[in-house]
Design a protein that fits this description.
This protein is α/β, with parallel strands linked by helices. It is about 25% helix and about 25% strand. It is built from twelve helices and 17 strands. Strands 3, 4, 5, 8, 9, 16 and 17 form a seven-stranded mixed sheet that branches. It has a six-stranded parallel sheet with strand order 12-11-10-13-14-15. A two-stranded antiparallel sheet has the order 1-2. Strand 1 and strand 2 form a beta hairpin. Helix 4 (about 160-170) packs across helix 10 (about 300-310). The two termini are about 20 Å apart. Bound molecules: zinc ion (2 copies). Belongs to the zinc-containing alcohol dehydrogenase family. Keywords: Metal-binding, Oxidoreductase, Zinc. Pfam families: ADH_N, ADH_zinc_N.
């Protein structure tokens, strides 16, 4: 039997989020039913709902940084039981049989993974709905366990912002002795600073604004470079092993390539648009530099980043909100006015700030 759920949905690109009652599917044999406790607010939520990427479907309940408590499990579920505290990130399904899926890299599924919201379900073709709601039903393969002792509120954003920055740092082998530049100091950037530091790297934050220098040092950056200051940029020519670029809008990456040593790697995790202005071929060729991209992380690595953060005492800096503050939060997020992630306390949807 499907179960009634309460959420906040966008019904078009122009309308604000509003309370919406809908149904969660009847659990399948491999499904975990989850009562949602917290949900992080990611910039992608806003982009998707406002159809900035031309892929929206409505109504949509956004939210893919979900922490909750298991309420029931299907007969075939082996890893979870009622009462467990679990997480759900950006993916809820994939083909499960291509080489990427078989390698635990479901984010690169040959058929495309099923997004937590706004994707057709692979079995019944209904649209998936995300975590700005009181419950969710997800196949256990796409559920992770929240480690003992981790602060659940501030751990929610690890399921997107955390894994998005952790996965490339791990994949490209960042370790003690490496010099790593983090470009941008938003939700992704501040996690990049913390995670690269915890991996032992010497971390430099690149920011356009002088005003973020003190804050970046507080977050654990060893150095800060104001990228709009040409003399500061010139002073770091050919200095870095890696550059983790979290900026989601078009920007000139040539000055950052020049800051890489020979064989250095520039990793894009925020930009989905064409690179503009164009990248200098010489900037790559003359120093054998690598320009790379990376998308979130697979399910095994999503569990790994949670465990890593629990072990190292790393969490996201969050500002808690109630669900009825979500539209205001989106406006502030669009202006960069949040340090560094809003997280919705989902008790607020159960207490009545919800659909009648
Ligand atoms: Zn996200
Ligand atoms: Zn696949």
């Amino acid at each position: 039997m499907s179960t009634p759920a309460k959420g906040y949905a966008a019904h078009s690109a122009e309308t604000p989020l509003e309370p919406w009652n809908f149904e969660r599917r009847a659990p399948r044999a491999d499904d975990v039913s989850i009562e949602i406790l917290y949900c992080g607010v990611c910039h992608s939520d806003l982009h998707f709902a406002r159809d900035d990427w031309g892929m929206a479907s409505y109504p949509v309940v956004p939210g893919h940084e979900i922490v909750g408590r298991v309420t029931a499990v299907g007969d075939a579920v082996t890893n979870y039981k009622a009462g467990d505290i679990v997480g759900v990130g950006c993916m809820v399904d994939s083909c499960r049989q291509c080489s990427s899926c078989n390698s635990g890299l479901e984010q690169y599924c040959a058929e495309g993974f099923t997004m937590t919201y706004g994707s057709p379900d692979r079995h019944d073709n209904t649209l998936t709905q995300g975590g700005y709601s009181d419950s969710v039903v997800v196949s256990e393969r796409f559920v992770v366990r929240m480690p003992e002792g981790i602060d659940l509120k501030s751990a929610a954003p690890l399921l997107c912002a955390g894994i998005t920055t952790y996965s490339p740092l791990r994949h490209f082998g960042v370790k003690k002795g490496h010099k790593v530049g983090i470009i941008g100091m938003g939700g992704l950037g501040h996690m990049g600073v913390k995670l690269a530091s915890a991996l032992g790297a010497e971390v430099t934050l690149f920011t356009r604004s002088e005003s973020k220098v003190a804050e970046a040092k507080k977050q654990g950056a060893d150095h800060v470079v104001v990228s709009t200051d040409e003399s500061q940029m010139a002073a770091v020519t050919e200095t870095f092993d890696f550059m983790l670029d979290t900026v989601p809008v078009q920007h000139d990456i040539n000055p950052y390539l020049n800051a890489l040593k020979p064989d250095g790697t520039h990793i894009l995790v925020g930009l989905l648009e064409p690179i503009e202005p164009p990248v200098s071929g010489a900037g790559l060729v003359f120093r054998r530099r690598v320009l790379a991209g990376s998308l979130i992380g697979g399910m095994p690595e999503t569990q790994e980043v949670l465990d890593f953060c629990a072990e190292h005492g790393i969490t996201c800096d969050v500002e808690m909100i109630n669900i009825d503050q979500i539209n205001e939060a989106w406006d502030r997020m669009a202006k960069g006015d949040v340090r560094y992630r809003f997280v919705i306390d989902m008790a607020s949807i159960r207490e009545g700030n919800s659909a009648a």
